[in-house]
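2024-03-11 09:14:02 DEBUG pipeline.ingest accepted 1 chain
2024-03-11 09:14:02 DEBUG pipeline.ingest length=197
2024-03-11 09:14:03 DEBUG pipeline.predict start
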Amino acid sequence: MNNMQRFQLPFLRSLTDSRGACRSSERGSPSTKTAARLLALALLLLIAPLLAGAQELAATLSGTVTDSTGAVIPNASISIALNGVNGTARVVLSDGSGGYAATNLVAGTYSVSVTAPGFETYKGKNIVLNVAEKHSLNIQLKAGATSETVVVEDNPVQVDTESSAQAGTISGVQVRELELSSRNFEQLVTLQPGVVN
């Protein structure tokens, strides 16, 4: 018995006889059907990754529009504009439950303006959306005339992406006021982030 016959799978043995010819008399046998199903499954598994969509790169901004009492505000107009780009802003309306969602936004810094009859205009600035981020921005409108405007600025934490170095300063007050068991000022260095003793 050669090596190929020894390692043949059971369903392949049923498809071929000892000479390697296909058995034409057993075309409708259960083992033939099983082999066809396995072949179809293998092809499906090979083709499935090609049919799958690419990784989502667009960001989504969503949230709920409420008033100062927490009641939802339906049909509020939410205008979302990319900072530094002259063009039209994306406008969405809040639904009956006050929720809104703006999908397929490119990564960047946005300004959001919300208007509703009987409420002050809300303006949000510097809202940063990263690649494939699902950012939640809940908006609370104050009752008043639409001529009044409330400006809210989102100040994200700045991260240094150029270097992995960390730095910090120990003030003179810390040096004078903090108690040191060994009177060694070098112990104060361990108060900085990323420093271990």
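2024-03-11 09:14:41 DEBUG pipeline.report The two ends are 68 Å apart (CA to CA).
2024-03-11 09:14:41 DEBUG pipeline.predict end
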